Amino acid sequence: MTPTFALVSALLVSQVSLVSGATSPYSDGGSARQVVACNTNDGGCTCAAIGAVDNTSNSGQNCTGQDGAKRAIANLNNCRANCCGDPTVATCYSALMGRNGNQSMCGNQQPVTMEADYTKFSMAAGATASEQLTNCCRTKAIVKCSQVMCALQGGSWDLDSGKYQAKAGQAEVVCTKEDCKTKCCEPNPLMCDAVFSSAPAWCGTNYTPKTLWTMTGAVPPHCQSAATAAMTATFTVSADNASFRTACCTAKPAPTACPADFACPEHYEKKSPMPTTLYEMPQYGHCCQLKTGATSCDLDCTTPVQQEHITFPAAAGTCGDTAKQGCPSSKCGAGQLIEMTKLIANGATATNATIASTCCFDKPVAAAAAGPAPSAVVPAKCSAYFVAALAGEVKAKGTTGSAYMQGASLPILAVAVLMLMKF
Asked: What are the residue boundaries of the structural domains of the chain, listed by start?
């Protein structure tokens, strides 16, 4: 996963997202990032607050994101495209992002020296290009490598935290969103993840590389990999690689023979005599043999065998679906299949009832929906957004007073949200 350098004018950003409380990858806390303070209100900014007007003729329209997908929550990010219109007198926002807006209004020369000033969105843009440049744009903030936090923990860089270190001698180099990573940072050679491709060789024959990713801590149904402590574990270079092995490797267990008390799975029994071969980790395939009479349930599949891959949704609080390989069989009831990988004792002489209770499983049945399907999105309407945004503005003014009007102490709206969500 590549670090996200959230910086510079959104005219150069290709994707958008709303970031709440994200850690800035810059030591000044993100002075290069502009804010739209009202977007932290309940419902986000009103159309008027960003220099647009309520498009009341679209009151019944669905709220959608910049990808066109329907959105269930009525707020600025979800509803702006369909619900906000251009004012009669062009504002800086409409001159930049309106139906006839010019996203190059602040200039598109390289290197970029000017950018839209978010604090002026609701101000009159002016009639000429020169007036708009003066009224709506500002000199682009300068960021140097000394401000870039290469070893940022969490926040915008997420799973890459700790993988990078600052390049020597680059403190005064000016960078942009596109090149801060390459100009200012380099992979940290003293962290396990940065040298992972070399880990098998560096660990040696008696060690294995530690796992750098895990599902632990994931929150269903949005299950994602999370970094383990080994990813950013540090080590020091030494001739014997001892420090590296401690931080990044796990010692292989000493080879052993199958123990006398090895626990075999159902329908298996310990080999007799037990093999004397030494294994790093004895498995049942090494130490066990199929019991006499045990057979595979798939012998009772209807021929020709029609295999089905059946997926069962993840259980509550867990990540990842489970699956079984099944096949139709006359021994199973309606809506059932034979579990092909399962075994049955004395399968050759087992009764149909025994086969059914041992080998058959129920195919999942979709629950009848009482209303919209759980995954269906019931989209919010522009009318709901107009009400929610106005109520949020009134609430914010009433609770924060003049501090609200100055946009003080408010979290950020990612630079790109308003720049790229076109009508």
From this structure: 10-145+379-420, 149-251, 295-362
Question: In whole angstroms, what is the distance from residue 78 CA to residue 59 CA?
Answer: 14
Distance CA 256, CA 270 (A): 16
Greatest Cα pair distance in the chain = 95
* Separation between Cα atoms, residue 29 and residue 62, nearest integer Å: 36
d(CA 306, CA 312): 19
Task: Write down the pLDDT at residue 64.
Answer: 82
CA 117, CA 115: separation in Å to the nearest integer?
6
pLDDT of residue 41: 87
Q: 5 or 223: which carries more pLDDT confidence?
A: 223
Cα–Cα distance for residue pair 179/370, rounded to 1 Å: 52
Instruction: Report pLDDT digits (tens) over 9-55.
Output: 232 222 222 222 334 454 443 445 677 888 888 888 999 999 999 99
* CA–CA dist 232, 161 (Å, integer): 8
pLDDT tens track for 114-143: 888 888 999 999 999 999 999 999 887 778
- Dihedral of the alpha carbons of 170, 175, 177, 180, in degrees to the nearest 10: -10
User: What is d(CA 75, CA 108) in angstroms, rounded to the nearest whole number?
Assistant: 31
What pTM was estimated for this model as a whole?
0.43
Secondary structure (DSSP) of 14-41: ------SSPPPSBTTSSTTS---GGGGS
Q: How far is CA 12 from CA 18, 110, 116, 306, in A?
A: 17, 11, 12, 53
In order of 203, 380, 393, the CA distances from 65 in angstroms are 48, 11, 22
Closest CA to 160 of 7, 319, 13, 5: 5
* Burial (0-12, 13-18, 19+ Cβ within 10 Å), 63: buried
DSSP string covering 207-259: EEEPP-EE-TT-BTTB---EE-GGGG-B----TT-HHHHHHHEEEPPPPBPPP
d(CA 267, CA 288): 10
